[in-house]
Write a structure and sequence with these properties.
Shape: rod-shaped
Helix content: 55-70%
Oligomer: single chain
Number of domains: 3
Radius of gyration: 37 Å
Mean pLDDT: 84
Strand content: 5-15%
Distance between the termini: 9 Å
Order of helices and strands: EEEHEHEHHEHHHHH
Number of strands: 6
Low-confidence stretches: none
Structural class: alpha+beta
Strand order of the largest sheet: 1-2-4-3
Largest sheet: 4 strands, mixed
Number of helices: 9
Length: about 290
């Protein structure tokens, strides 16, 4: 399946602990590179998050950002360490008995003592489960967007392949006319010189020239590459690397065709081929 490496996904949800959100961004990359930006509370499940993403994607640089805001009930919930507070009060009373002139301790002073007041612990297992489920939704959204972008890229590549097919057909039809034109030009030069001509030698030279200018092999290979493109489009696994290699082969045949060109039309066809191939190559860089 043809998928782009470019995509974006953002999902939000409200769980018991508060508001949570995931933001995923992916761009083209040679391999699969995953970067997480997580608060310390979520670091524990990073291996699970990474494994999930690796099961969905094959290539691309993916940045995953997690944000959350605790609910008011979570931020306001405080607990008092009763045993510690009772022990602290007992010790304060004991000190007051020893030092009657000392300033009495106030309630705020007691509550400020380390460990007396503590925040209620959040149910982290439930919180992590919510984070994982939301991340799955974000990943599915990212995969869908990459697939949609991949369909657009496939249509663009298919249009360029159709144009290349038409160019190859034109050059193939034009080739016999080019050889005939060369033969006439050579004959005209000999006629202008007004000398006796060795017909056998003349035919040999024409055969030699036609061999040097023969582009049938290049045209056949271009047709073969076009057929291979359609085969690759139908594959279910990632195809970006295969297409990238095929673009190199396309470009090689276009260069050879240009070097063998003996007329303006064939040269222009070779230039048009290289433009189309370059357009395809640029887009192929973004295919997974």
């Amino acid at each position: 399946m043809l998928c782009s490496m470019t995509g974006f996904a953002r999902v939000e949800d409200v769980c018991d602990q508060g508001n949570v959100s995931w933001e995923l961004r992916s761009v083209n990359h040679r391999y699969l590179e995953i970067n997480f930006r997580l608060p310390e509370e979520v670091r524990r499940i990073e291996p699970q998050l990474r494994k999930l993403l690796q099961s969905k994607l094959a290539r691309g640089k993916v940045d995953c950002t997690f944000r959350y805001q605790l609910a008011e009930a979570q931020t306001a919930a405080l607990e008092i360490n009763e045993p510690l507070l009772e022990s602290l009060i007992k010790q304060v009373n004991h000190v007051n008995e020893k030092l009657p002139q000392a300033t009495p301790a106030e309630a705020v002073d007691l509550l400020s003592w380390p460990g007396v007041v503590r925040t209620a612990e959040t149910d982290m297992n439930s919180f992590h489960t919510s984070c994982l489920e939301l991340f799955k939704n974000a990943t599915d959204q990212l995969v869908d967007m990459r697939g949609t972008e991949g369909k657009r890229l496939k249509n663009m590549l298919q249009e360029r392949c159709d144009e290349i097919t038409n160019i190859v057909k034109r050059v193939r039809i034009r080739y016999p006319q080019v050889l005939e034109s060369i033969k006439q030009k050579q004959q005209q030069r000999i006629d202008d010189l007004n000398v006796d001509m060795d017909q056998q030698r003349f035919e040999q030279e024409l055969v030699y020239a036609s061999q040097k200018l023969d582009v049938a092999e290049e045209l056949d290979r271009l047709d073969s590459h076009l057929t291979e493109m359609q085969t690759i489009f139908d594959r279910k696994d990632p195809i970006g690397r295969r297409l990238d290699f095929l673009m190199q082969e396309f470009n090689r045949e276009a260069n050879t065709l240009a070097s063998k060109s003996a007329d303006v039309e064939t040269t222009q066809a070779a230039v048009d081929l290289k433009v189309l191939i370059e357009q395809m190559r640029e887009q192929v860089q973004n295919i997974e």
